[in-house]
Each structure stands twice: as structure tokens, then as C-alpha cells.
Amino acid sequence: MSQLSEETASGGTGATGPGTTGAGAFAADVMNGGADDPTATDAGVDAFDVFSRDCPSRVALEHITGRWGGLTLSALADDPLRFNALRRRVDGVSEKMLSQTLQALERDGLVIREAQPVNPPHVEYRLSPLGRQAAARLRDLIALVEEQMPEVLAARGRYDEGRGAGWQRGQK
Amino acid sequence: MSQLSEETASGGTGATGPGTTGAGAFAADVMNGGADDPTATDAGVDAFDVFSRDCPSRVALEHITGRWGGLTLSALADDPLRFNALRRRVDGVSEKMLSQTLQALERDGLVIREAQPVNPPHVEYRLSPLGRQAAARLRDLIALVEEQMPEVLAARGRYDEGRGAGWQRGQK
């Protein structure tokens, strides 16, 4: 289980959070908790369950759906991009966040970093086959959200009107 | 544009963050920034673009794909659930986070909170038709991640071996 070694655990924690505070603590959970089970049993698909807090699939899902991870994968779905072009496309991402996001996605095998041995260096990021599958599903979801935003905005309006001053009451 | 009124802006900020610090600041951006454009122009689908930092669709996408939002929607895809059953299903979510997540999803018109007028009170959460569409796409993505976790773990192993002590170098 070299992928969950002590060194990896600390390295992985550093690269975990595309914009989400607390992801580090979560990754630490995975390392210290039940993360052994799915890989140790050498079982198939059923071994992984994002609903289980200690399953490494939850962290992978967070890399894919995180604030910057989702946009980054979607942005790369059309063509490979260099860092700065990607940063312009994912409007609002900081250099540091994009760098961490790409690192996490590369480590998970979703993005491939391709450095061509030329001078000056030319580095491109592109999707792996798995990254393309994930990006296709993300884009389905993004298309739905963009299409249905008028409905979402209307729902927000109804919700806020209905709640008035009581909007912030607790809900269970 | 009642849905972007001053009152809504502050209320919305409070309920924005299912587990992501900084979502509040982001929502404030939307309120102060270019959020007027898409609704003011009364344009169609093309007006919304999650890649644009000020587009309200980005916040809606974050509610759907956020750490707890995605799991909550997916958990409700099968059956309506009461708060405590939902909390057990979404392993690891705090009461406060689940409450905020449900509030954000209800406000966006994805989840319906149904309080039956009985004693003791019986409250269930279920998906709206739009919520079902989003949940179906999320579950496609989750299924892919769970299925491909062996490949993800293998990629992590290769990445960490290849990098060794140089793992934390900057990447661009």
C-alpha cells in the first residue's frame, strides 16, 4: 500500500484542497481511519463508497467536484491548455489554487502534465482517458445548471419572499 | 430582480457554504459584481456561464457539487428522507452543515422540505424534478469514481513513486 504511506499522507494532504478548507483534515482522517479496507481486501467496485467518510473515493470525488477541480477538468475537455491559458479560462482561480488543483488531478490520474523538452519550456495539461470520462459527466451537470438557472433564480425569489424576516430560522 | 435584493444578498451569503469556507465571500462577489447581467438582459441559456466568476450559475453549481451538497442530493435520489436518516446516510456531516446544505438546496429549488401537520412534527426532504435531474448526473459521476478507484489509487502510487522527495515541487 505504498500509495497510503506516511510520506504520501503528508504530501497528499497538502495537495488535497482545491479551495476547501478542512480537506486536509479530511485526508488525514482517510489516512488514519478506515482507508485500509477497500484496497486491502482487493475487492471490486463494491468496496468503494463515497457515502462512507473514510473511503478514499470521497476524496477523489472532491477533487473532481471541488470548486476549482470541476471547472479545471471541464476547461480541459476541449483541448490541452497551458497553465496561463487555463487560468484565464477558469476565471477567478489564483495561481496557487490552480497549481494545487492540477497537482491533485494529476496525482489521481485525471490530468496529464506534458513538458516538452524545448527551450523555453513548453508545458501543457491534458485529460487522461479517465479524466475525459469525468469531464463528460461534469459537463452534463454544468449544462443542466446553466440551462436551468432561470428556474433556480425563480425558486430563490419564491423562497426569500416566503420566508421574509424568518429566513434565517433553523431547519431540520 | 427581487432575488438579488439587499436582503437576499445577506441571507444568501449565510446559507451559501455547504462546507466550503469562502463561499460567503464568493456570493458577496456575485451580489456586488456582474450578477446583474444575466437576469437583466432576460437572455436565454447563453447568458449563464459557470466559467465566469460573477455568474450566479457558479454558486448554484457549487451548491450541487459541494462536499455535502453532492452527497445530499445523491442520498435523496432514491427516497425522501427525514433529517436524521439523511444525516446517517451522509456519513460525517455535522448537524449544522447538513442544515445549511439543505437550506441552500431548498432555496435553489432542488430539494423540497415537506412538513406534515401532525403531532409530533414529521418533516421530510425530497428532490424536486430539477433536483432529480441534477442527482441523476451526480450519480453518473459518483458511479464512475467508485468504479475507477483502483485506477485512481494506482495512478497515485505511480505519481508518488515517480516524484519521491521532489513531490512537493511547484508545478505550472
UniProtKB/TrEMBL annotation, chains A, B:
The keyword Transmembrane helix does not apply. Residues 11-22 have a biased composition (Gly residues). Gene3D superfamilies: Winged helix-like DNA-binding domain superfamily/Winged helix DNA-binding domain. PROSITE patterns: HTH_HXLR. One of its GO terms (molecular function) is DNA binding. Residues 55-153 form the HTH hxlR-type domain. Residues 1-27 are annotated as: Disordered. Keywords: DNA-binding, Transcription, Transcription regulation. This is Transcriptional regulator, HxlR family. It comes from Actinacidiphila yanglinensis.
